[in-house]
Amino acid sequence: MSKNNPLVAILDRHHIPYTLHSQSYSTRTIEETAQARGISADSMLKCVLMRDLDDQLYLACTRGTKRVIPQAVRSHFDCRRVTCVAPTDVESRCGYALGTVNPVLLPTSVFRVFDHHIALTESITISSGNPLLGIGIKYADLIELCRLLGHPVQVSSVR
């Protein structure tokens, strides 16, 4: 399952340690996914794809049990209005199905903001882009990898 995964290949290429968290059946919520993988929902990264009135995309990331508040994202980026991308449009807008979006594999044109509370945990589980496979990675390594790949990354409050 992980042999041909693009995110695993990037992690290996950059010599970043990680753990794989697989599941054998499909799930719909972060809580169900965490249970299927035998991990805490709070240790998972929730990624919410948003857009402003000019159609600029933003990815707001927080811990799995927390909510992203669009007003906090709007304030951080000084936008007039920011809304969540419709669940039916996520895949066509970023190339990944709802529930499989992660901050590493998106284009550099998508601005990323990580809730500063994520730093309270040493590691976080992110989606691999495959709904049946999560990847555990140190938070500091995730931020560094995003920056190495040229992704605009900021840390702020999004909740």
From TrEMBL:
Regions crossing the membrane: none
Residue span(s) of domain YbaK/aminoacyl-tRNA synthetase-associated: 27-144
Name by which UniProt lists this protein: YbaK/EbsC family protein
Pfam families per the UniProt record, alphabetical: tRNA_edit
Highest taxon above the source species: Bacteria
